[in-house]
Design brief:
six-stranded mixed β-sheet; Rossmann fold; 63% helix; 2 domains; ABC transporter transmembrane region fold; single chain; elongated
């Protein structure tokens, strides 16, 4: 119920519409069911007076006369039919808003998670399994929205059941109370099946996280595993988790089916007992007993439905609380965005006595270096020397634990960090092309960029000649991860993406390490021309990059030493 209250507070307007429609539907159904009593009395008692002021339908008959209608058989049947139609219309309205809200719940949860993740510190990402985040983004919002559906359906069933209770109590409060007590005892005895379903749902949530995490990791390693003929290892890992998930789902199915199977006979026995008691022991009129049993059957059916819906909600609510926990964790790691000074890059970047350590392991130790503006600076060094850490510090993904970073003489902590990042173009080593057109890959979906901007960026990256020669030009599909392009062409597209918003700082993180010499040479020519206009920082072990660099820093033992190109260690040690 805590989850349902959370949803009602989050969507008060939609919930108010749903509740109002359901309450009206319940009232209308109660009135229409009341009309059955005088009808049945007339039929069963053969000549019963429909217009009698006595009996359980007196209020309805008085209301019809107040409206100027004679309470004849035809009018009462019309009341029943109109009530059924109105109830269906109101229920449809309520269900429509429930359906709209279900879709919105899933969308809002995904967007809330996405915003929280994008605003979180970089170190938070480093500690999160991609598979777990993918599960939180894909599966958990859908299961959480189902919990909302089951919860609102439970409210609907409760309101309808209440209408039946009120009408049946007006006929015989004694029989109504007896039935409610009997049905409550049955439901209480079956509650263990609800707990079983809740436990199965929690287990499913936990296993789904682990399964998608392992699946993501394994799929990224399929090529080397197939190359070594060891793909069966993936099957063993995934099969184990899949069987665990299957067992949890079987427990859920068992608990649901057992609840249905036991509820039916138990409620039927209660109805049969009530029929006997009403006629033989309490000597109630047959018409009243028939209407009463019809109403109480619906009451018990409603109670059973409420319990089954609660059981279904219990299965799904663990997904919501798991997602809520992930969102709260991401929000607690919100990244500080520095000060409010707008950055410039006219002079250069200075790192002064910078210190940084990962979980107590020192990486940078009083490191100092200068990156002049409008020049190319290369960082080289052995793997683990701290090159990527320096880049992450300059971008602002990490923050110095000692020393400071100056941008044009201004401490980076005083700068608007988001504005600073918008001045940076970043080219990673990994191929991050989308299965889309060259245009979309360069703009990355930025609607403010035009075809002219894309053409300029492709020319600056040395990619325009081959793109223009393609049959569809910039509208050419690149394939999965750029499979339709060569390695050099893919890397040029990545450089064009980094350049299209005309950055002041271009960072190349081993951007040419996987290319053949001819592709490296061509890209280096393009980079050599760019360094006259923008500041370039390149992490590279490639001799061609080092040869065109204006300044070279070799990182070792947490410090940076400025070296000449002839003295630089350029062997690929990454």
């Amino acid at each position: 119920m805590r989850l349902l209250l959370r949803f009602v507070r989050a969507y008060p307007w939609q919930s108010a519409v749903v509740m109002s429609a359901l309450i009206l539907a319940g009232l209308v159904e109660g009135v229409s069911m009341t009309a059955l009593l005088p009808i049945l009395s007339s039929v069963v008692e053969q000549g019963g007076n429909l217009d009698s002021e006595d009996g359980k339908g007196a209020y309805l008959l008085q209301g019809l006369r107040w409206l100027g209608l004679t309470p004849s058989l035809g009018v009462l049947i019309a009341v029943v039919v109109i009530g059924a139609v109105m109830r269906s219309g109101l229920t449809m309205l309520a269900n429509k808003y429930v359906g709209y809200t279900i879709a919105r719940v899933a969308t809002d949860l995904r967007l809330t998670l996405l915003k929280a993740l994008l605003a979180a510190r970089w170190m938070f990402y480093l500690r999160q399994p991609i598979g777990a985040l993918a599960n939180a983004m894909s599966s958990e919002p859908d299961r959480a929205s189902k919990a909302y559906f089951f919860g609102t359906s439970m409210i609907a069933a409760s309101i309808q059941m209440l209408a039946y209770v009120i009408v049946s109590a007006s006929i015989s409060w004694r029989a109504t109370v007896a039935y409610l007590l009997g049905a409550s005892i049955i439901l209480a005895c079956l509650f263990s099946l609800v707990r079983m379903a809740r436990k199965a749902g929690r287990r499913q949530t936990k296993i789904r996280k682990a399964l998608l995490r392992q699946l993501t990791d394994c799929l990224q390693s399929v090529k080397p595993l197939k190359a070594m003929g060891r793909e069966e290892l993936v099957d063993r890992v995934i099969a184990s988790e899949t069987h665990r998930l299957n067992r949890a789902m079987e427990r859920e199915v068992l608990s649901k089916e057992a609840l249905k199977a036991v509820q039916g006979p138990a409620f039927l026995s209660l109805v049969a007992l009530g029929f006997y008691v009403g006629l033989e022991l309490w000597h109630m009129p047959p018409a009243e007993v028939m209407v009463l049993l019809m109403l109480l059957s619906k009451v018990m059916g409603g109670m059973g439905k409420i319990q089954r819906l609660y059981q279904s909600m219990a299965v799904c609510d663990s997904a919501y609380w798991s997602l809520d926990k992930t969102i709260k964790k991401a929000k607690s790691q919100k990244e500080p965005l520095g000060g409010n000074i707008l950055p410039t890059l006219e002079k250069g970047i200075d790192l002064e006595q910078v210190e940084f350590a990962y979980e107590g392991r020192p990486v940078l130790n009083h490191l100092s270096l200068t990156i002049p503006a409008a020049s190319l600076t290369a960082l080289i060094g052995f793997s683990g020397a701290g090159k990527t850490t320096v880049v992450d510090l300059i971008i602002g993904l990490l923050h110095p634990q000692g020393g400071r970073i100056l941008i044009d003489g201004v401490d980076m902590r005083q700068l608007d960090l988001r504005a600073w990042r918008q001045m940076i173009g970043y080219v990673p080593q990994e191929n991050l092309l989308l299965h889309d057109t060259i245009f979309t890959n360069v703009t990355f979906g930025d609607t403010e960029l035009t075809a002219k901007d894309v053409e300029w960026a492709l020319q600056a990256a040395g990619a325009w000649d081959f793109v223009a020669a393609l049959p569809d030009g910039i509208d050419t599909l690149v394939g999965e991860r750029g499979a339709r392009l060569s390695g050099g062409q893919r890397q040029r597209i990545m450089i064009a993406r980094a350049l299209v918003h005309r950055p002041r700082l271009l960072i190349l993180d081993e951007a040419t390490s996987a290319l053949d010499p001819e592709s490296q040479r061509a890209i280096c020519r393009s980079i050599g021309q760019l360094k006259r206009e923008i500041t370039i920082l390149a992490i590279s072990h490639q001799p061609m990059i080092v040869e065109i660099a204006d300044r070279i820093y070799q990182l070792e033992d947490g410090k940076a030493c400025c070296v000449e190109a002839t003295d630089a260690v350029v062997t690929d040690l990454s």
